[in-house]
């Protein structure tokens, strides 16, 4: 009897890369396709792009399968269509660092430095003092996919995952943002458990935290650094996104990702532009 | 009558770079020297190295004089002696992004992505909700340069600047760390006012926050991202450094830098290894 392999989940299908010949041994090249389904406001979501870069890095250094620290600078908007990712190993070790670039039409869109390792090899010690968000259960939260059809048309991204924002995080949808600069909610993919690569997507999946400050609109990411600290347990993830320094037309956005076992599995911080 | 130009401050002398011929037009090369005076435990301080990379980037794109976001991955320890910095412009714009690498003996020690701009051109809007540290005045704090001679011999770095830690931040020096994971204090250079470049140094100038958790020892930086959000006012800077996720042999360290006018001028986060 053969065990049937289940079909790949949507995210993994959409992240699929084809190796190309590189210009030399030191540089590897991959071609992929950015699906319109991951777009929001016409651009492809930055978390999906980060996961694609992570996927290329993993293929480049398969003995170091997990992202540990990925720092990405967004130098141009990416749109639906073909994309190319190039990778160059900077240093190999227990922690292996790879420089990676995602380009479209020959122009860089994201340039990144990714440090990968094997998270399964870390010590079991957990001395986390950060406190997990205490959220109402998912069924008492608000599905982002229940947004008005007009919104969904410009943000097909929202239909790629299950996100449930806490009631106090969605005041902006009815003209009553809390003004705190805090969004909290649940996150999962419908057909796939979380893994370290998926956390690169999750850290930029929420609406901009500036929505909660009464500033709707696109908040372009300048720079995004994500630390992945552990392999997440199966089940719902909890996301907490906050800002404390909106100034000079920019803001920082911190995201914490907690897994179903109560572990702080990822932390990210981005610098973004305040929506006009 | 001629106005005498004051001699350059120590930091600026030590950051001096000499342009070299590049391998091609796209790549610029600079030679510098890492002075032993900036070392701690035999390695050169990561903040000084970040400032040297920033200095090379500024020379590469002089019309964008200020760091806005600098993400650096530390792939090897740097030691006293010659160093070379190479820079490559990834994209020019209001925000200009440059890839930079600092090498010694032909091997990379730090690889970085730096986004520079002109901070003087930002809007005046400040909506910061983070609260500045309330510290006892510098004269009621503890000078790190008053550390025991045995310590100073291994950390000449400490004599390059004036740092005054709050009394509650130095319990570790007498075997009574607070256990909170928080260090706060004052910082300035004796011969120079702060500027955006100097903030790259300041964000990694404090002892590792793990000292406050009763874990003395060197905490090697894996990755460090610094956002510089404003040109700092003259005078003392206030630093607040904290961690909330010590786990699996790694920890995150956040640093806030507040200027004398009460502005949150820089935020950094690093991923580092817990001292053994």
Automatic annotation (TrEMBL), chains A, B:
Every copy of the Acyl-CoA thioesterase-like N-terminal HotDog domain together lies at: 34-116
Pfam families with a match to the protein in the record: 4HBT_3 (PF13622), 4HBT_3C (PF20789)
Q: Which residues form the Acyl-CoA thioesterase-like C-terminal domain?
A: 138-274
PANTHER family in the record: CHROMOSOME 23, WHOLE GENOME SHOTGUN SEQUENCE, THIOESTERASE DOMAIN-CONTAINING PROTEIN
Q: List the protein's name.
A: Thioesterase family protein
Species whose genome carries this gene: Nocardioides zeae
């Amino acid at each position: 009897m053969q065990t049937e392999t289940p079909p790949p989940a949507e995210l993994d299908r959409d992240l699929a890369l084809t190796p190309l010949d590189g210009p030399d041994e030191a540089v590897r090249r991959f071609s992929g396709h950015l699906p319109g389904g991951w777009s929001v406001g016409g651009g492809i979501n930055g978390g999906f792009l980060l996961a694609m870069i992570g996927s290329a890095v993993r293929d480049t250094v398969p003995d170091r399968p997990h992202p540990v620290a990925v720092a990405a600078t967004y130098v141009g908007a990416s749109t639906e269509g073909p994309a190319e990712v190039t990778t160059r190993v900077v240093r190999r070790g227990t922690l292996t660092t790879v420089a990676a670039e995602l380009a479209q039409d020959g122009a860089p869109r994201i340039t990144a430095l990714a440090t990968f390792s094997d998270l399964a090899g870390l010590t079991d010690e957990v001395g986390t003092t950060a406190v997990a968000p205490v959220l109402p259960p998912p069924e008492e939260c608000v599905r982002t996919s229940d947004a008005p059809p007009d919104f969904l048309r410009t943000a097909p991204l929202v239909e790629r995952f299950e996100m449930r924002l806490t009631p106090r995080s969605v005041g902006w949808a009815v003209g009553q943002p809390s003004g705190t600069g805090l969004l909290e909610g649940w996150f999962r993919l419908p057909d796939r458990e979380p893994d370290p690569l998926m956390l690169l997507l999750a850290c930029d999946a929420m609406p901009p935290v500036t929505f909660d400050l009464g500033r709707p609109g696109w908040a372009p990411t300048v720079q995004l650094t994500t630390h992945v600290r552990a392999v997440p347990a199966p089940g719902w993830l909890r996301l907490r996104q906050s800002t404390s320094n909106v100034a000079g037309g920019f803001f920082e956005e911190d995201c914490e990702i907690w897994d179903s076992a109560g572990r702080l599995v990822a932390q990210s911080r981005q610098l973004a532009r305040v929506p006009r």
